[in-house]
Specification:
By secondary structure, the chain is of the alpha/beta class. The protein has 15 helices and 14 strands. The chain has 3 domains: 74 residues, PDZ domain (Pdz3 Domain), CATH 2.30.42; 206 residues, no CATH class; 169 residues, Rossmann fold, CATH 3.40.50. The longest helix is centred in the middle third of the chain and has 21 residues. The chain is globular.
């Protein structure tokens, strides 16, 4: 991370930075004598003392120092976006390698950044982390971080990742654990590649390193996720798809093990099964007690379906549901979640007299083997809505509104922050992966189109606001479920 300081793009009026004469356009070079590497480094350094010495460089390259009383808090500056680090792996199932042509450039960037891992739960293979960066993780207490292990057997990991230097992942994990850093881990499971005895060794090696009293750092969890393959694998290594039968066998074998392990960890699940094992096998997800009380690794697809069902159950018991009475809406979602949403909508229709209809959207952009809602493109949703309208008489007002998955929308796009170069917050308009916007989809259909939110209670709020004006997505709808900016990179 060889940045020469970090540029200030905005200064809060009346803040310690403003009183010290720091202005937008200046560069923070050092804090208390230590170089400012990035935004995370800044946050760590200002938290170390109540009075902070800041070295600053003006745009004309003149420098000065100020001693600021900040009480261990930030000094009131917004900093420029950090440069994103890229992955050095060539994993056989890397999703970026399976992208079709014609999408925006930022979608082809393979981010691999411990800062995003710490702050937002992104998984990192640690391929771009040398000894100095591992030491930084320990020194700045960037704990927990999230590590894609895939296999602890060195030969298999090299085969999976395509990097002959990155087979010994346990050496890096052990270095972090010895420094007091906790780690969440995952393995993307591909049949015949890293399952069977290789997976059992991965499970055993990481279980031996689990967090426990008396240990400085430990492995907090291990999730297993079925491999996801698109229709665009020309020239890539052959990888076997996870079939419904394979997924069902995995659930039968490892669901009891999850329960056994949970009994050994005082009720906090350590081994986690992603929802896709259940949706691919068409098996009902387990009850609430199967998942972490804090929904650990929710962002990795562990427990999303169960959390939705729990929220829906509470919603049906409340009075707010009656505001759905008489509403006619089309709910679009990915084919893996569609059966769950359809059952939930049917219960709501019976309880309130609403007319909600669910349509499973085929993913023509990435291939129909991709069934998750978050990877649906605007054109996929448009096609599904048109098909539903034609199937129901072709009237332009066949429903009052169309609801699309919040997870399919990005509020800001590209390898930049949510700020413009002038430090002004950029407008959040809502963009799908193929650059179609929410407003354009609405114009194409001639109807209001709203994001779903995380549950049907939020869907109701959004339907109520369907005709409210304003181009900014975040001022109109719930943030929950949307793809918000995450540091320097939001594809």
């Amino acid at each position: 991370m060889a940045q020469k300081g970090v540029q200030v793009i905005a200064v809060e009026p009346g803040s310690p930075a403003a009183r010290a004469g720091i202005r937008a356009g200046d560069t923070l070079l050092a804090i208390n004598g230590e170089p400012v590497l990035d935004q995370l480094s800044y946050q760590f350094l200002v938290s170390q003392r109540d009075r902070t010495t800041v070295a600053v460089q003006r745009p004309d390259r003149t420098t000065f120092e100020r001693r600021i009383a900040n009480g261990g808090e930030g000094i009131g500056v917004d900093l420029a976006a950090d440069e994103v680090k890229v992955c050095r792996m060539n994993c056989v199932f890397c999703f970026v390698h399976q992208m079709p042509e014609g999408f925006r450039k930022s979608l082809y960037l393979k981010d691999e950044d411990i800062r995003l891992s710490f702050r937002y739960g992104h998984f990192t293979t640690l391929s771009s982390s040398d000894r100095a960066e591992l030491d930084r993780i320990v020194r700045e207490r960037l704990s927990p971080i999230h590590v894609s292990v895939h296999a602890t057997d060195p030969e298999t990991r090299v085969r999976v990742t395509g990097n002959p230097k990155e087979g010994r992942i346990l050496d890096k994990i052990d270095h972090l654990l010895a420094g007091g850093v906790d780690v969440h881990t995952q393995a993307v499971v591909a049949p015949g590649l890293n399952d069977g005895r290789v997976w059992e060794r991965t499970f055993s090696d990481l279980w031996e390193r689990r967090a426990a009293p008396g240990r400085k750092g430990g492995v907090l969890s291990l999730s297993c996720v079925p491999v996801g393959l698109t229709a665009h694998r020309e020239g890539l290594p052959t990888v076997q798809e996870v079939s419904p039968a394979y997924a069902a066998d995995w659930v039968r074998r490892w669901q009891p093990e999850v329960r056994r392990i949970t009994r050994l960890t005082d009720g906090e699940p350590w081994l986690l099964l992603a929802d896709e094992w259940y949706t691919r096998a068409a098996i009902e997800v387990p009850g609430r007690g199967f998942y972490s009380p804090t929904w650990a690794q929710l962002e990795n697809g562990v427990g999303l379906v169960r959390r939705f069902l729990e929220q829906h159950r509470r919603f049906l018991r409340g009075e707010k549901k009656h505001a759905f009475a008489g509403r006619r809406a089309l709910l679009l979602t990915g084919s893996s979640f569609a059966p769950t949403l359809e059952r939930s909508a049917a219960l709501l229709n019976r309880a309130t007299g609403s007319q909600l209809r669910v349509a499973a959207v085929k993913n023509f952009s990435f291939g129909q083997s991709v069934t998750v809602a978050g990877l649906l493109c605007g054109k996929d949703l448009l096609y599904a809505a048109h098909a539903d309208r034609e199937a129901h008489g072709g009237r332009p007002d066949w429903v009052e509104a169309v609801v699309v998955p919040s997870a399919s929308l990005r509020t800001h796009t590209g390898p930049t922050d949510q700020y413009t170069l002038q430090g002004v917050v950029a407008r959040a308009e809502g963009t799908f992966l193929d650059d179609m916007t929410l407003d354009r989809l609405s114009a194409e259909l001639g109807l209001p189109v709203v994001p779903s939110g995380e549950n049907l209670s939020q869907t109701l709020d959004h339907l109520r606001r369907a005709y409210s004006g304003g181009p900014d997505l975040l001022s109109r709808f719930h943030r929950d479920g949307l793809n918000l900016p995450q540091g320097a990179y939001n594809p």
